[in-house]
């Protein structure tokens, strides 16, 4: 899978397709009881502001968890292609040890500029509030290898 690259400007979204797959995620009431203490695990967290991003990354509940931040756009084919995999990982493979968040670059240019996002999708991995890895492109095998290094 490839990636979408920009020239440094964030282009307006075409809004031709939705990044969210149709499959429902597990509701909070159906979670494993060990997961209920952290409201961010076992789902995808849609981030809509820098304040929301900072709160999630710096929350003391998340100190020992890996945070995978997906910078995406609705118009980006590789972003759309990898999205179902991320939902699957969030609700199954990594439901207790990784927090997944998605940031739409067209709606959050302040965050995409802060982290110098130039290709999509770009995944930033955070541990203890610090960026520990960056993966650009929609190759789920490469992303999984990096996630496994930190979990």
TrEMBL record:
Write down the SUPFAM superfamilies for this protein, in alphabetical order: Thioredoxin-like
Question: Pfam families recorded for this chain?
Answer: Thioredoxin
Q: Which UniProt keywords apply?
A: Disulfide bond
Report if keyword Disulfide bond is assigned.
yes
Tell me where on the tree of life, at the top rank, the source sits: Eukaryota
Q: Which residues form the Thioredoxin domain?
A: 17-151
Task: List, alphabetically, the InterPro entries matched.
Answer: Thioredoxin-like_sf, Thioredoxin_domain
Q: State the residue spans of region: Disordered.
A: 1-35
Is Disulfide bond there in the keyword field? Answer: yes
Q: What is this protein called?
A: Thioredoxin domain-containing protein
Organism (species): Rotaria magnacalcarata
